[in-house]
Design brief:
It is built from six helices and five strands. By secondary structure, it is α/β, with parallel strands linked by helices. The chain has one domain: Rossmann fold (3-Layer(aba) Sandwich). The longest helix is centred in the middle third of the chain and has 23 residues. The chain is globular, with a radius of gyration of 17 Å. Bound molecules: adenosine-5'-triphosphate (ATP) and magnesium ion. The site of adenosine-5'-triphosphate has 24 residues, from α2, β2, β4 and α6.
């Protein structure tokens, strides 16, 4: 008993704080993913990075130099993430809201590595919700390229 407790204590000290990434686009499935992410974060005592990516094609991304466009991106991020914030504020979990611009799946995978998250949580479909497909294209691309476990919420 006491040996077990000691081993656990040592592991706690050597591990960096745990975190998860919730990919959030403001859709209903993404909201379900956020709620599931909150449960996971509570269970693992982890921080949540809530990420919204403003979808911008690479050509446009190359010329993203003017402050006006960057301001618009930030405002769009704020608009989408507002609801996520109101859900999170009631839950007492540690979180950070992040707006990025670019290809959503690429950015989600990139940030999951940058923040060294233990898991990505996302919805099976998103805003366009094209019913004929099992999962949306962002979800599929993240599943294909992620180096982390991905929890897809239906
Ligand atoms: N721009 C985004 N930023 C952050 N997360 C996103 C973004 N787009 C999608 N996601 C995440 O991916 C999940 C699945 O959405 P996805 O975009 O793959 O499906 P869709 O919108 O139904 O289909 P598609 O976009 O391929 O037409 C969402 O529930 C959300 O968790
Ligand atoms: Mg989509």
């Amino acid at each position: 008993m006491s040996v077990c407790a000691t081993v656990l204590k040592q592991e706690e000290h050597t591990q960096s704080p745990r975190s998860i990434l919730v990919a959030y686009d403001g859709s209903e499935p993404a909201e379900r993913a956020l709620k599931m992410g909150i449960e996971v974060a509570k269970a693992f005592n982890a921080k949540i990075y809530v990420v919204y990516v403003v979808n911008i094609p690479p050509e446009v991304h190359m010329i993203l130099t003017t402050g006006t466009i960057l301001g618009e991106i930030a405002r769009e991020g704020q608009r989408i993430l507002e609801r996520a914030k109101s859900i999170l504020d009631k839950e007492g979990v540690q979180y950070e809201l992040i707006t990025e611009a670019g290809d959503p799946a690429e950015k989600i995978v990139e940030l999951s590595e940058k923040f060294n998250v233990m898991m990505i949580v996302m919805g099976h479909r998103g805003l366009s919700g094209f019913k004929r497909l099992l999962i949306g294209s962002v979800c599929e691309k993240v599943l294909r390229h992620s180096t982390r476990p991905v929890l897809v919420v239906k």
